[in-house]
């Protein structure tokens, strides 16, 4: 998020305002123990002087649960979390909860229920809301409960509980449920209405009423009868303990809804799968008949759901802040979507100048403090993300020294956080069953806010490390702590006793929620949807790199689902969600009650538009699926801003490049020299992003590959197919339009769909490798002759020690060591007319591709002459030093480094021909 970011009065929201004070810290116990996880661990006690969850005045608070729910992981950051997280000392019930189509609020008398159907435009036109307004209250005669607690929950339903010592009430409510199911003891069913009801149907135990223009049906047990007395409606339960009500889409729907009135929902569950470039998800209710044998149900589907289902729907609809909801008769429905594309980074292209990119990369890698002073979880995460985006770019340029330096920085900072006892650590809160990073920020401790935002950067950065160093990512090393963060923020398990299922992600709403307590009149909220999808993309990459297909597929499901929710509810891609009176083309924040053209910290249009774009990564490509929405978005930003972006120009250039790359590049060309990158960005990444898309074209979401780490770009009539293969053997990726792309092991490849690849990736087998500009060794022939520049030694002596080397690699190499074989090479070098230059080579072998080079051979340098023309440098110069031993290559990596050993001028190294080759002793 922004820099600097403070939550202040700049939040331009009308009814969502609530006290935001973090309160004073609660004292921590003196002693703490480390819970070991692999090579790291976390503390079982928060650091002294820090706080865990509190009320808004700083009083420590524990989950508000019934005895039946005690000890279970509480799903904070949900649409109903105020039932369990009492943020305000004077409200032990709940704040408004937006289930859609119904809204709710727990009170001493029971459950207030509303069905808002008319939007209000508030906050100087910056917010639209369908605010909760009570139509009626469901309760029991005489009920006066001192509080309301969470008794049970499932994927998108919850059961609040009331008790005053004489009477008990449980209701089950949920997303998409037109019914409220009630179980009560100690009193008769009671409904009190906000205004005198008009009765449109009276069938004894079934009563149809209209309140404030909204139609409701009340259902008491068979054999009982409703009594209407002004605004109070009661029915004895006749020895039973159940009753229900439903909001009707129209009065003629009463018969259909009556059919399911006593089929009580007892649970809800989402199941997902990924195959062949598509994500399927099934949403299922479980029910129990209270009388009769009917166990079916009715569900209202959000727009992002009904757009992607072929299951039959009824003609009935509801109004909601997310547009029209459509009613399904049945216990389940299934959606099917094209999987959102993810890449570790955009591929190499001819549009990016390697030397210029290398210069920008070194600006970051050689900075005095690459972490820019970050100390808390959020800003440290931003810095980690910034560095992680540059690792594959350094690889593309062949600058493995920078690549490895960046990886070292990332590892070091992650390991620092993944151990205890220092100035920063993760600590487990036993009461709330959550992992909190200290120093915390933006209420990640006291309010349990934003864990999915903060931790997304750690998971994504760790996934990049895992791509290059699988040993580091092992559970026994540092991977265990990465998975612990995942368990906190996006736990795929419903049976984990330490963390809740998918803390931040609401499977039915289709997106995440940011507030831990949901303590606002407008319900819960999410501002930076793009930081939410950053976690999903990180899961795709982590799962792909570590072979954890379950986590990979979870990431694909989350990313694909939320990408559609973002398009519809943040960007109004189809222009069918935002009320016409709202007057904006994008929302900075989505609330339970609606959406706002605002952020938590500023009214600056650049940040309102940019907060749902950053961080820009290979997981941002889904945004390019709605190009018209991007164009409207950019146009509105420039209108509101009084001109093009200034403060966050890089983020918005990159966003525009997803729809109009040439226009974005024109802005880069005209303004790149005089701006400061956004805190999570760098000129290296922005330059590479814009020039690559300008060369390849914008993302083409209409075509998908059969692995998650694949994407398609279209420029004019030419499609470029890209994929990254994290595996140890080459594979062919098949795209939905029939195109095929062969991708070597542990490599990114691009092609035009003929089944082959560009010469960019290295080969999987072979013994004679040509050099390619950009850092590749390949067995392919027929390349274009070129050259790379060997840097100047700067007058210093670098004999035996690589200095600003040119680096060429082949990955995924398989081969059997030849008996008595030895490395050979012939390299064409030219120093022109420079005197006193010497070029040196080193060849290294990583036998299994795990990031550890078992054999390294450094050769004596070759002194070039001061006569223009190619000279040949070969292994005959002799070994200067060697370490380790050769063995068979099994998905291994072969690396050639060439650097200036002595001299004060540059030289050239020939590439793209069979005259500059490396021959390895394998068959």
List keywords for this structure.
21% helix; elongated; alpha+beta; 51 strands; 923 residues; eight-stranded antiparallel β-sheet; seven-stranded antiparallel β-sheet
What does this structure look like?
With 923 residues, the chain is of the alpha+beta class. Helix content is 21%, strand content 29%. It contains 14 helices and 51 strands. The strands form twelve sheets. Strands 9-10-11-12-19-16-15-14 form an eight-stranded antiparallel β-sheet. A seven-stranded antiparallel β-sheet has the order 3-4-5-8-13-18-17, with no helix packed on it. Strands 39, 40, 41, 43, 47, 50 and 51 form a seven-stranded antiparallel β-sheet that branches. A hairpin with a 2-residue loop joins strand 20 and strand 21 (278-289). Helix 6 (451-468) runs antiparallel to helix 7 (475-490), helix 8 packs antiparallel against helix 9 (549-570) and helix 13 (661-671) runs antiparallel to helix 14. The model is unreliable at 1-30 and 758-765 (pLDDT under 50).
Shape: elongated
Strand order of the largest sheet: 9-10-11-12-19-16-15-14
Tally the helices: what do you get?
14
* Main structural class: alpha+beta
Beta-strand proportion: 25-35%
Number of strands: 51
The whole-number mean of residue pLDDT values reads 93
Instruction: Provide the helix percentage.
Output: 10-25%
Which residues form runs of ≥5 with pLDDT under 50? 1-30, 758-765
CA-CA gap between termini: 52 Å
Instruction: Please tell me how large the radius of gyration is.
Output: 31 Å
User: Main sheet, how many strands, which sense, barrel?
Assistant: 8 strands, antiparallel
